[in-house]
User: Fold this.
Amino acid sequence: MKNQIDKETNFRKKWKLNIFFIIFSLALVLITIKLFILQFVEAEKYQEIARNQHESKILLRPERGNIYDRNGKILATNRISYSFALDPTVLKDMESIKQIALLVDSTQGETYQKLINKITTTKKSFVWLIRGLDDSEASKFSSLNIPGLIKIVEPKRTYVYNEFASQLLGFTDVDSKGIAGLELYLDSLLKGTSGKMTVLRDAIGRLRPIANLPVESAKHGCSVELTIDIELQKIMDTELINGALKTGSSGAVAIAIVPETGEILAMSSYPSVNPNMSIDNPSDLRNKAITDIYEPGSTFKIVTAAAAIEEGLIQPESIVNGYNGVLVNNDFKITDTHPFDKTTFSEAFRYSSNIVFANLAASIPDAKFYKYIRDFGFGHNLDFDSYGESEGLVKKINEFNTISKKFIGFGYGISVTPLQLLCSYSTIANSGRMMKPYVIKSIRNNTGDMIFEGKPQKIRQVVSQKTSDILTKLLVGVVENGTGKYAQIPGLNIAGKTGTSQQFVEGSYSKTDYTASFVGFFPAESPKIAILVLLDKPSGNYYGGATAAPIFKNIVKGWLTLNPNILNGVQSKIDITEN
Amino acid sequence: MKIFNPPKSKVSTSMMETNFDKSSSKGKDLNKHQGFDWVIFLCVTGLMLFSIAFVYSASGTIAELRYGSPDKLFWNHSIRVIIALIVMIIFAKIDYKIWKKFAKPILYISILFLILVFFIGSPINGAYRWIYIGPVNFQPSELAKFALVLILAVYLSERQDFIKSFRLSFFPMLIWIGIICVLIALQPNFSTALVIFLISMTLLFIGNVSIKHLIITLLISLSSAIIYALNASYRFQRIVAFIENVDGAKEAAVSPAAFQLQQALIAFGNGGIFGRGPGQSRQSLLYLPESYGDFIFSIIGEEYGFFGVVLLLLVFAVIVYRGIKIAQRTNDSFAYFLLSGIIITISLYVFVSAGVNIGLLPTTGLPLPFISYGGTAVIFYAASIGIVLNISKNTE
Assistant:
């Protein structure tokens, strides 16, 4: 019986299956060890690789901050725009390429040819077709059913008032990066901080947002409020363009400032540019009010007069010698357009005698004269809220001598920016107290907190109030019955000065190229605003009194229509003084 | 000589009765070792049900890309799992002895399919591995694998008395092994052929054939296999990729196989100890090719971590252990060899599939039993477990 059982189960060698199980178990142990290495020892390495291939960071674009004028009107903002690109690796059909190119350039001009060449020759899978289209323009492209056409929605900077204040505001490139003016100066604040969103990416590059991955949201740019009054700016720009065209000037600048605070109310340069369009002539982007320098001529006489009066060298009633209009020496010849022999200083000022001012300047000690020039802000920049401000050219004190002082005395041999010159008048208007000119009223961050506030800053007391009052009276005389009479507005006391200077061209003073200017402030009793108008190379009549003063007058008239209450106040004040 | 087993149910009841009379403790003992193996049943059912979740998260992205619906493969697989569970229960009810009668017909049918696959099969990546009959896609090698195990079990049990004879025992079995393996290798599906060959050799070893014969056969076939392997460039590439990757994964962009392995390793590493959590696999976002099939082990590693995969391996170990225990109890040699064959098949597939996934073995495509998405594999494995359960029921 036992044999039978043995025989029956002889096939069953238990050890064999046991060995098999042991080997299998060992194999599993081996796998477990390898798993432990992969999932514990080396896990970090693989997790790093995994993150790199699974996760993708998407840039979240911040919105560029708006720019407002002093009354909260939007000057620069963003709108949704549509851009189109083409993937030439997808689109090979020549007819479709031509169709697209025709939409971009309907004239079939150079752009058309260039685009077709680019599409047909490039190896890239992305070619920009056109950027920054609005809704209606974009629909032309969107309606095309062409494979490989890529539509991209992106913000585009928009300037609400087009060419107005364009050089001051500056503009941005297609990527909304500031490249000129305040857009450049404040770019780091305006642009905001881009955010990042981590998304999951599959092996064929499709992205999917995942809730538990970190999102660092974009911080929108700061918004900026300017001291500019866009309505005045519009008037100033318009009048400047009209005036420049009328006088045939090749360029022009106008600035308005509040003497009491230094706030810039308007700043214009001609020729103007529209930052919403493509810009043909990049040099027109310059904010000439701060970048360009010129020899001021007669308008600079205010500095000479201020120094002399403050130093007690002269009074308005002092009798001065006009040498009948010609002062000749071995080294120089100075002439006047209104010749006279002997008259009062105020009369000489009214008719802007070069000879009187040359001699007056010569009588001021070098160091004193130099000090006043520097104190009025010439020869160094005013730290204005923009890049590219020029310092102007002022001779060093050791280059001061009788002759050089004579010429500086009536505004030659010195170069200034329009803003510098206006600031010197603004200083007189503000009782001799010079205020720092500024254009940024406030900056608010994306949550609306004010992070910067532009406050009036006194630079220095340049001359006494008494001197300022005397100078103001002299300047009123210029407008009342002197060279500045074209700036007159009945019922309003305007203090102003004309300037006509020959431009220094190729080593000598030109007989054809002039700079004509008028600078003034009003109401003279209590100045609210100072304005400078400057024309570059007016053709025909080149006198500042005839060319720039009327533009000044038109701007003032415009400003008064905007601020009639101030006019009323002034008139009543005038009435009171007259009674 | 044929071993005849009397109907077990009758014997066991009578024994139970007698045991009850003698001592209760012995009766308990017998009870414990007897009857339907619920552990295997629950383990396998659990694996198959979990495989639905595994396949779902591994296949979602690719199904969406290919079929436009992320649950397309999930539904396919779910239906097959349900069918497989039914098949398992049916097979558990069928007396395993009838398979002895069907062994030859099943073998012939499977060989017929293996030949047919060259004519009516659809090539996938240049290999004839699948036959589509209506909605069912059918992989003849899956059937052939079990047909071979079955016929070997029959031969081994019938020829135990002269098992050491080359002419009477070894050679006839070798012929069937050779036919099946060569046909599969020609598809070409070299790795499956090799694994089936190894299963057969292991089973012959369990079946007490002459060790001398076994060793000579192994030497001859493995050396010719190596020559064959180096013949096909993709296989060579994979082996090169494997060797390159053995010491620390190098830059993986070289070959698709190396890429696949690198992605599998990233999946494991990314899972870490505790895993990313169910459904959180990222490697299944089209990074890991075959993520729901032959490389599903990697995705499990990513989602359930080291503990998850080790638990999975333990479940397999339990199934194999229980299977071996049943085999060691049976007095029926056919049951013994059939059971051994099935257990060996499952063990080898688990080892090779997992080994490939973790870079322990050269990259090849072998499904993980009960888990991988695959047309017929799930059903054939379920059927084989049904047989195991039936044997367990009929074992003292």
Observations:
- Chain A is about 40% helix and 25% strand.
- The interface with chain B takes residues 8-14, 16-18, 20-21, 24-25, 27-28, 30-32, 34-36, 38-40, 42-47, 49-50, 53-54, 200-204 of chain A (CB under 8 Å).
